[in-house]
Specification:
With 300 residues, this protein is α/β, with parallel strands linked by helices. It has ten helices and eleven strands.
Length: 300
């Protein structure tokens, strides 16, 4: 918080950023930026990760307006020149391991800091709780001058609580738990099946009573890669399919017999592993899961 003309914030890497005044020109990884936008923080620009392309991924952008916020690029297109052109005084990223920023490379981050632009990174990894992640983004937004009592913020929190309760009600409506499988399609030969306890939003669904299917022992921390035939053998009443632009989408899988076998009689619902970390953004997902649970029950 700002005290005596100084600003200070400690991020989830344990790094403390100090400044003579509160940052006002924030550039952020698009997922982090969308969360801050929902919480009332304006942005001078956003950037992507190595998975992104020449334009931002709408699945990660939440409520960001499609025009008016510059995009500095991703991968090799994201560099000191494109970031500096935004004239930021703070860069915000996420971290999965509480050590390394996800979208901003260490060398680029170091060069920006040498130029006087510090960065912070908030954890979205498996060690963090769903509620804890939302709380940390709210803390950063408040440190940057957002109003914690803003009507839109309070209303978003109320809607999220209602959506969580809707999931509980939907789970309780069935005589036996529905099998829910989260995945990211890599193509016709392979699919990545999520290990639900390593994804804070999926683990939160489990805490709400949802029966998430774990792919079992094997390689991979967050995902287990397998053939579509193996995935189909797991069975599912509800499939949560990665909606990010780097994943193959369900409409492009209809020719695969194993996809048809996996989804026969199942409900398919989009899942964004990088939903912005705000109550406003997360509410839609939980509402959709609640409705999908009801639909899947009716299909039984």
């Amino acid at each position: 918080m700002a005290e005596a003309g100084a600003w200070k914030f400690t991020d989830d890497r344990g790094r403390t950023v100090t400044a003579k005044r509160r940052p006002e020109r924030v550039a952020a990884y698009v997922r982090a930026g969308a969360a801050l936008w929902d919480l009332g923080i304006p942005l001078v620009g956003v950037f992507g990760s190595a998975h992104d392309g020449a334009s931002w991924d709408r699945a990660k952008a939440g409520g960001l307006p499609s025009a008016g916020i510059p995009y500095a690029g991703a991968g090799d297109d994201l560099n000191e020149q494109t970031l500096s052109a935004l004239r930021p005084d703070l860069i915000v990223d996420v971290t999965y391991d509480e050590k390394n920023p996800y979208a901003l490379s260490d060398p680029l981050g170091e060069r920006m800091e040498e130029a006087g632009v510090p960065s912070v990174a908030l954890t979205v990894g498996s060690e963090a709780s769903f509620a804890g992640i939302l709380e940390r983004f709210a803390e950063l937004a408040d440190a940057l001058g957002a109003d914690a009592q803003a009507p839109a913020r309070l209303a978003a929190a109320t809607r999220l609580a209602a959506a969580e309760q809707a999931v509980r009600v939907a789970v309780a409506a069935g005589p036996v738990p529905l099998r829910v499988l989260a995945l990211s399609a890599a193509g016709p030969e392979q699919v990545h099946v999520a290990r639900p306890r390593t994804w804070p939003d999926l683990k939160h669904l489990m805490d709400l009573g949802v029966h998430m299917t774990d792919p079992g022992e094997g390689a991979g921390i967050n995902w287990m890669s397998m053939s579509w035939e193996q995935a189909a053998s797991l069975g599912a009443d509800l499939v949560l399919a990665d909606s990010r632009s780097n994943a193959v989408q369900p409409q492009d899988l209809t020719a695969l017999p194993a996809w048809r076998a996996l989804t026969a009689g199942a409900t398919v619902e989009p899942w964004n592993p990088e939903t912005p970390c705000s109550a406003a953004a997360q509410t839609g997902f939980f509402r959709a899961v609640a409705q999908a649970q009801h639909t899947a029950l009716s299909n039984r």
